[in-house]
Design a protein that fits this description.
alpha/beta, 14 helices, Rossmann fold, about 325 residues
Length: about 325
């Protein structure tokens, strides 16, 4: 009898949901949750994640990386990286370097688009070194995504990893990267699809009077620190030499929420982790901070900027005691 009543109660509840959904649909009920309103305000200015996933033809949605490059598309080779492919160019004894970063690491569009990892390989081969520099940078990536991409690379046994993030990490959004997938594609995201769900959310919004939603960084500084230390530990465990690079940028802004106001904090973390973990540091920011002629905008190198960065990195790593 108890089981029968429970089944009848559940059936009545589900039927009620269908009826409510039908009534709300017929009434053309619509409600935009407070968080979604905030997203709409910040989407085009600060938060480009949906754009990379759904509107950028170079990428595919990925539940692990959020977005992943299409193989054999745009600047990406069959392995999903930029540069020469490992399977055809890595011979026994070839020194393999992977670079991880955002748009300034991946470089400009076009098959021959300027990118400092490509120029770094030219510099090293010009010194007579048998090396392969694989560009694993991705437009729009944060260190949250970068360390996940790094973990995919570990089984490929790179000899060295160069890491340069910090701009996208500092962007102000309403959902951090680590919560973004669940919020955008998980249960919460599914609720937004149904009128009943919107109605319940509207009640919650009114109950808690969520008139404003706090903007947060895509990756908080504390998480940035944690990810860098985790990467250092992985490199130590697998015999990979880790090189940390500060994120170069120039200029200023009157927009209090613009990432460039928070960028120095991330560079400070890079310097501290490099010091504490006894990891080699190449301070790109310090070198380029007053050299606006090397920048196409506040955070992206020109071709000469990419070449200058390659020369600096080569000199700092391979030509110093």
């Amino acid at each position: 009898m108890i089981v029968r009543n429970l089944v009848l109660s559940l059936a009545a509840f589900i039927l009620s949901l269908f009826i409510i959904e039908g009534v709300l649909t017929a009434a053309r009920y619509q409600y935009t949750p407070m968080k979604i309103k905030a997203v709409n305000k910040t989407l085009d200015k600060y938060d480009w994640r949906d754009r990379h996933i759904f509107r950028d033809e170079d990428f595919l949605y990925d539940p692990y990386l959020i977005w992943r490059p299409k193989s054999n598309h745009s600047v990406f080779n069959a392995e999903g990286y930029r540069g020469r492919e490992l399977k055809t160019h890595r011979r026994p004894g070839t020194y393999c370097v992977f670079t991880f970063g955002d748009s300034n690491t991946l470089g400009m569009r076009g098959v021959d688009g300027p990118n400092w990892p490509g120029y770094l390989e030219e510099e090293l081969r010009g010194m007579g070194k048998d090396c392969l520099v694989v560009n694993a940078g991705i437009w729009g990536y944060t260190l949250f995504q970068g360390i996940r991409r790094f973990k995919e690379v570990v089984p490929l046994r790179p000899d060295m990893a160069l890491v340069c993030f910090g701009s996208n990490d500092a962007f102000r959004v309403v959902v951090e990267d680590k919560d973004y997938v669940l919020d955008r594609f998980g249960i919460k995201g599914s609720i937004y699809k149904y009128k009943t769900g919107l109605f319940l959310i509207s009640l919650r919004d009114r109950l808690y009077k969520q008139k404003n939603v706090k903007l947060v960084p895509r990756v908080p500084v504390s998480d940035y620190d944690k990810y860098l230390n985790e990467m250092a530990s992985l490199c130590e465990k697998h015999g990979i030499e880790l090189i940390l690079l500060t994120r170069p940028f120039v200029g200023g802004t009157e927009d209090e929420f613009w990432w460039i106001n928070f960028g120095p904090r991330y560079n400070d973390v890079v310097r501290r982790v490099a010091r504490d973990r006894h990891v080699k540091l190449v301070d790109l920011y310090e070198y380029f901070k007053d050299k606006e002629e090397y920048f196409a905008d506040e955070s992206h190198f020109t071709e000469e900027g990419h070449r200058a960065a390659a020369r600096l990195i080569r000199g700092e790593i391979w030509e110093t005691p």
